[in-house]
Amino acid sequence: MNMKRLIESLESLAEAAGVNVPGKHIFDSADVRDNAKVSGDAHVGDRAVVKDRAVVRGRAAVKDRAVVKGSAEVSDSARVEGSAIVKDSAWVYDNAVVRGKATVKGGAQVFGKAVVEDSAVVKGEAFVGGKAEVHDNAVVEGEAKVEDNARVGGNAKVRGRAEVIGKAVVEGKAVLEGDAVVYGNVRITGGNWDGSEGSVGEGKWKSQEDYLAWKNGK
How far apart, in whole angstroms, are the C-alpha atoms of residue 91 and residue 167? Predict the structure, then answer.
């Protein structure tokens, strides 16, 4: 057996035994510790930290100063970059990206080609998927869903069982909660929306009251 095959065999045995392999999984000044596991073609580089019982697998990458901890998982071809934090039992997978100073925590899931960036927070049991973007200081929490090509930004909050889908945009200081659903090309820039207005799929609205006045006057 030549040296290359010997090394590959030893790496395979180490990986099967749950041992992280420096030079294959861990690069630069990255720190993988405690019971954390990095496997497959995944890698942790720069000054990133993976600790506790966190898992990084598939072709996933954790780099820069990102932290993955708790029982969180980063898998498939997902990336966690910048100073982003993924923790608790959160799961980032598919081709999703979490970057900047963003945080994904609780039991939240970020998947598809979704991007969570800047200082945004996704938490609770929230889902962010498709090609959705959550950015700025936005918060998505509870059982809320942001999917398709939707965007949530500014200081907006999406919580409860609210859904932002299609090409909808929620920004400013808007708060969507309860069973609120926005879709299509609608743009919500403010106000509290609790679902009592029904699904909203068109126009640009600063408040629920403005929308209801237009709707009832049609």
Answer: 24
Cα separations (Å) of 49 from 46, 56, 65, 101, 140?
9, 11, 7, 15, 25
Domains of the chain listed by start with CATH number: 21-113 (2.160.10.10), 118-218 (2.160.10)
Neighbours of 125 (CB within 10 A): 14
Contacts of 149 (CB under 8 A, 6+ apart): 130, 131, 132, 166, 167
| Entry pTM | 0.90
Q: What is the pLDDT of residue 24?
A: 62
Instruction: Check pLDDT > 50 for residue 13.
Output: no
DSSP label at residue 212: H
Q: Could you tell me the two tokens for 170?
A: 């929620």
- Cα-to-chain-centroid distance, residue 132: 10
pLDDT in tens, 139-158: 999 999 999 999 999 999 99
Asked whether the beta carbons of 75 and 54 are under 8 A apart, the reply is: no
**Token pair in block for residue 49:** 């930290």
Which residue in the block uniquely carries the two structure tokens 């068109």? 202
